Structures are given as C-alpha cells and as structure tokens.
Amino acid sequence: MPDRFLLAGVMGFPVMHSRSPKIHNYWLEKHGLSGRYVPLAVRPEGLQAALRALPALGFSGCNLTIPHKETAMRLVDKLDAASKRIGAINCVTVEKDGSLSGSNNDGYGYIQSVLHAQPKWRVDAGPIVVLGAGGGARAVLAALAERGAREIRLINRTDTRASLLAEDLGAPIKAIPWSQRAHALKDAAMLVNTTSQGMIGQPALDIEIETLPRTALVSDIVYVPKMTPLLAVAKARGNPIVGGLGMLLHQARPAFKGWFGIEPEVTPELVAMIEATL
Q1: Would you call 78 a catalytic residue per the annotation?
Q2: Residue 34 and residue 255: Cα distance in Å, rounded?
Q3: Which of 210, 217, 224, 258 is least buried, going by the fewest C-beta atoms within 10 A?
Q4: 125-135: per-residue pLDDT in tens?
C-alpha cells in the first residue's frame, strides 16, 4: 500500500488511557509501514458519524472500547460469528467497497494469551471455573466453549446474571450459585477471573482458593496491576498463573492483520514496553 499513509485508531470515551496506540505503532514501525494508529475520543452520540467517516478519511479500520462495543454492532454492515455470540464488537475493518465489518477478537486474544504463557495447556483438562458475568466473561466463555471445554462453571455474585448468561450461551456452561463457589473449585483444572475486582482502585476478589487444586491454572484478565491479588495468592501456593496483559496484546494481532495484511508477533520487547506503562 505505497499510495497512502496507513491509518487506524481506537474509538472510546475516555480513550487516552488506551495502550493500543503503543501496540499498533510498535508493529507499524517493526514492519516498516508508513502509517499511524491514533486515539479517537468519540462521544456516544457521535459514534455513527465517526464510523461512517472512516472510509472517506482513508482509515483501514479501528478498535472500539468503552462505551462503544455494543452500540457499534448496530452501526456496521457485517458481523462475524464471534461478535454475534458475544454481543459486542471490538474491531471494525473497512472493506475494499467501503463497507464496515465488525468483529470481536477478545476471545481469540484470551485463548492465545493462555497458550503463549502455558503452551501445554489443554482446555479439556478438567472443569473450568469462570468468575463474572459481564462483557469480559461473555468473550472468555464463548472462546473456551468453542475451543472444546467440556465443563464450565460460571459463578457471579448476582446469581441471576450468571444463570441468564449460562442460558444464553448454552452448553457446556452451567451457572453455580455464589454460595457454592468454594465447593466448585475442588476439582477444577482452571480458574478465570473476568471481573474488575483486583484492578487498581477496586477491592480484591472475594474468593478463597484453598479448595482449588495446586495444579489448576489461575488466570486473570485484569492487567493493571500486572500481579493481581488473586494471581499473587495463586503463585504463592504453587499454581501456574496467566496475567491479563497477554489478552490485550494478542487480541490486537488479528485486527492488525485485517487492516494491513501482516500478522504481527507479540515479542518480549513489546511486552516489556507495555509493562513499563502499567
């Protein structure tokens, strides 16, 4: 694409906290591409106009963050299967004809982050316990089920939200009451926190993991701080752990490929650069 300056960005409000510009601009430079990935502060009432302006402005696409992930689904021309199941999109690609395709790469990013950190991990190794019933949970649950998980136990402080989400997504997801969370961990092969608890400024996750086998993989999609209270406790007792930063990095890879035709890598240099901003 030597005929134009490559453009992509991230739409959100607020948006300046996003690490996505650092990630994508690192890859643009790494691959010798002339272009820029920029933060786009777009208020909710301006989202439709902003998205429809992408082709005319020469953008290859954009990412979407809070509060646009769900609203944007109704504003694009095509949706992939993952976004339909998750109920949100985090990526828009401008097609050759100027139409807008929406996709959700969060689930892909999550699975790849686990495999990157724990190459021998198997999704069918045993029951998986997932905490939370928000947008992050939907992406993780859908990805685990698609990957081949045999049993997923969904637990949320509000039992009805977990039940509704489990019913919506279907097998192999089953809602477990919050009061039974300790029992649900006893034979689990994996524990995943998809809530914001443990994030800087938020209280620690309200769960004890004494009943969790020490062989179980413990994962947290929170990446600020890098070592959440849950991960610290798990690491201290000998459980293998996976932090949340990898999900952010790996979900960006298919977006970059869709926009610019190159599949980038998550290198130690990139990880170190982003970790320095946390």
Answers
A1: no
A2: 17
A3: 210
A4: 999 999 999 99
